[in-house]
Amino acid sequence: MMLVRAQDWRPRGIDDLEPDAWRALRQTGSTCVVAGPGAGKTEFLAQRAVYLLETGLCPAPYRVLAISFKSDAASNLAARVRKRCPPELSNRFTSLTFDAFTKSLVDRFLTAIPADWRPSHPYDIAFPAFRQVSSFLDLARLNAPEEWLAEVAGLGAGNFESRHVGAYRLPIVRPAPQTGKEFTIHRWWSDQLGAQPRSALSFVSLNRLAELLLRSYPHIRRALQLTYPFVFVDEFQDTTYAQYDFLLSAFGGANNAVTAVGDDKQRIMTWAGARIDAFDRFATDFTAVRIPLLFNFRSSPDLVHIQHVVARALDPTAMPTIARAARQVDGEVAQVWHSPTTAREAEHLAQWLVDDMAIRGRVPRDYAILVKQKSDDFEADLAAPLALTALRLRNESHTLGRTTLQDLLSDTFAKIGVALLRLGATRRAPDAWQLCSAALLEIRAVASGDDVAEARTEAELTAFLTTLRAEMANTPPTVENTVALADQVLAFLDVAAVARTYLEYASGDLLAIMVDAFQQHLAASAPGATTWGECLDAFEGVGQIPLMTVHKSKGLEYDTIVFVGLDDQAWWAHRPGDPEGLATFFVALSRAKQRAIFSFCRERGRRQRVAELFQLLTDAGVPEVAI
Ligand SMILES: Nc1ncnc2c1ncn2[C@@H]1O[C@H](COP(=O)(O)OP(=O)(O)OP(=O)(O)O)[C@@H](O)[C@H]1O
């Protein structure tokens, strides 16, 4: 592989970067890139990875590490890098979630964790619900020494774990607690570590244990720093106390160049413990250069203008951004719809979507229906009326066992599984073939350059597909048949080998969760399908209109977004001026490339609590239309 000289390097897959993005790309030290929606922050990270790898600034065997919050963001970034540089370079780009990364450290070095905090091997993953935290705090209060009662009583279930456990650095040797808060945190740890029959650790705890490991063993920390001279953190505004502290212990004070990108105005995870001072702390702790970007490559100029009105409500000093995308629609780019009943709203929406697709030659996946929360309720209201016009709604936030549809579709195992089935259903699926053959080489641990093993693996795949094709050709897509097919895919791939191959499954039950969701969702995709191709289309959401919460829509973009439920009921927790609510509204609005519709329905609720959101739209010149 020929290296490119740094001064000759050009971006891949896009024409150019904005001047400040070039400056950020070439930074040798730590940098924070702060930019609004559609500025190309994720694209910038992908380009910087390619730049570092292709120019040899990150030479073999060193790697670039990208840490994201959500698994789909991590896989999206990895896919962008794979698309833009050859495999021998892109395989030195590691893209993981914070959770997967810290968990893999704990799993690898579990026996080295200081004895006072060491979990059982194996351990379970816990997802403490609000009610459980609440009962735990009640018990802690009952058992607290008199002098700490008031302090323990002041701890709330909503943020106890994220704000307090997450911010508590574990001392190497567990001391006697000195305060009510420490007393409660220690009890929390005792409950998780001492759970029967195995320790039950939440991801916050895993994060804390990973941080403790690095602090206790400087040589592990050093090895990490050497492996990853370049580190990226996407969506930095959502960094929690625990995650920030981990980053600091892992890479603070070293020579690693950490690039943090994000947008303060899209901070919608404060409820989950995002620290509001993350960028400022980072700038100080990592002596990072701050580089703002001002372009918006996503939204048309008219939408960028509306976004700016909302941005100013969040931050009066917000700079206007420069729209780089052209407007492609006639008429209004944004509207508020006002309907008397949910039935009328759904009927109008369905007809409008059908007409718009016909006039503009668009497909269902160009649109997204966004909601504040409870997407299942909106699915119940909208799915049937949309079906009457032959539109299929797809609830991406739908729960599948212990995961969601959206997470399943970005899961590595699920992607390989569905690609195998695609190859079973048709011979014309070159992308699926490429994905499966590359994955199988990894799963069978074939060393690169081992031609004999490569040929054997390809023959194995071909033989499996021959059997699979014959079977799929002779059986219709029924729920029963999906079970049999999923079993064959699992047996062929060898679940234990899949677990060994991919870091995210290194231990714990993530793979089991995904396998279970894969089987469930495949079975649910069969009814109504007349061919396996249709069943797999249903599985992947081809030809369906996605419905999801604003949280799930982060980082995504659509030609048109329709936000349903701009009313007091959906926004029951919103208080005027509350930055988190405004930021949620901003995230929803800024997913749109060409058009944004906000739907208010009188039957759903009033519009007092959300009056300021309507006012912002009015200020931005968005008209209200009765439907
Ligand atoms: N330099 C560029 N030239 C052309 N298009 C670009 C460029 N950078 C990004 N894009 C495109 O602009 C869109 C937005 O990019 P991206 O998703 O990286 O933005 P972002 O800043 O991460 O957005 P957000 O914070 O809103 O999720 C994508 O379609 C991307 O392909």
TrEMBL record:
Reactions it catalyzes: Couples ATP hydrolysis with the unwinding of duplex DNA by translocating in the 3'-5' direction; ATP + H2O = ADP + phosphate + H(+)
Enzyme class: isomerase
Cited InterPro entries: DNA_helicase_UvrD-like_C, DNA_helicase_UvrD/REP, P-loop_NTPase, UvrD-like_ATP-bd
Pfam families xref list: UvrD-helicase, UvrD_C
Classification via SUPFAM superfamilies: P-loop containing nucleoside triphosphate hydrolases
UvrD-like helicase ATP-binding domain location: 14-300
EC number: 5.6.2.4
UniProt binding sites for ATP: A35, G36, P37, G38, A39, G40, K41, T42
Alphabetized UniProt keyword annotations: ATP-binding, Helicase, Hydrolase, Isomerase, Nucleotide-binding
Keyword Isomerase carried by entry: yes
PANTHER family documented for this protein: UVRD / RECB / PCRA DNA HELICASE FAMILY MEMBER
Protein name: DNA 3'-5' helicase
